[in-house]
Design brief:
The complex is a heterodimer of chains A (about 120) and B (about 110).
Chain A: E1 3-7, E2 11-12, E3 18-25, E4 35-41, E5 47-54, E6 59-61, E7 69-74, E8 79-84, E9 93-100, E10 107-108, E11 112-116
Parallel strand pairs in A: 2-11
Antiparallel strand pairs in A: 1-3, 3-8, 4-5, 4-9, 5-6, 7-8, 9-10, 9-11
Chain B: E1 3-6, E2 9-12, E3 18-24, E4 32-37, E5 44-48, E6 52-53, E7 61-66, E8 69-74, E9 84-89, E10 96-97, E11 101-105
Classes of the chains: A mainly beta (about 120), B mainly beta (about 110).
């Protein structure tokens, strides 16, 4: 069974960088067929896909955030990470890591609330 | 691609048959998934590729459609089905979600 767990600061100051890590268990992050994603949900709102990465290092970004986002993978720790720079209050959201076959999101972490505030 | 769900909210009773609609702003073939989300929880994949039931999901859930118009049907509502439902297209990156349909108890 694939299990995902987000970790990172719950509070980030405006203009700083939001950094989150997703620890994967139950499968190797280098297993083919899995795309490792970040998705966020603003409070009381819908879902927004941010980016995903394949184990080979291929990355795909939502163009609306592309200039501020980096997704990376650490195969030695079976983790993948998200960095979002120059955050504002509009980046306050629950951030989920998720995984699937590239066409859907079958596995999800529990989500972590990140608040941008001074 | 913009995904538009209707209705945005819906009140229904246990045992009712419910249909939620999702419309894409352009054709997406059958690259359409449905998710269920309960408060404070991550979304759960119910239906993939428009009409395929994800393993472990009750058979009262079904999906149909192709092109631009899709539906999620719950044949007989159970108490645990009251939640918010989202459609998601995976035809083109960025993959986009509908705004959600909140299903409430009447």
């Amino acid at each position: 069974q694939v299990h995902l767990q987000e970790s990172g600061p719950g509070l980030v100051k405006p203009s700083q960088t939001l950094s989150l890590t997703c620890t994967v268990s139950g499968v190797s992050i280098t297993s083919g067929g899995y795309y490792w994603s970040w998705i966020r949900q603003h409070p009381g709102k819908g879902l927004e896909w941010i980016a995903y990465i394949y184990y080979s290092g291929s990355t795909y970004y939502n163009s609306s955030l592309k200039s501020r986002v980096v997704i990376s993978v650490d195969t030695s720790k079976n983790q993948f990470s998200l960095k979002l720079t120059s955050v504002t209050a509009a980046d306050t959201a629950v951030y989920y890591c998720a995984s699937g076959n590239g066409y859907n999101f079958l596995y999800w972490g529990q989500g972590t609330l990140v608040t941008v505030s001074s | 691609i913009q995904m538009t769900q209707s209705p945005s909210s819906l009140s229904a009773s246990v045992g009712d048959r419910v249909t939620i609609t999702c419309r894409a702003s352009q054709t997406i073939s059958s690259y359409l998934n449905w998710y269920q989300q309960k408060p404070g929880k991550a979304p759960k994949l119910l239906i993939y590729a428009a009409s395929n039931l994800q393993s472990g999901v009750p058979s009262r859930f079904s999906g149909s459609g192709s092109g631009t118009d899709f539906t999620l049907t719950i044949s007989s509502l159970q108490p645990e089905d009251f939640a918010t439902y989202y459609c998601q297209q995976s035809y083109i990156t960025p993959q986009t979600f509908g705004q959600g349909t909140k299903l409430e108890i009447k």
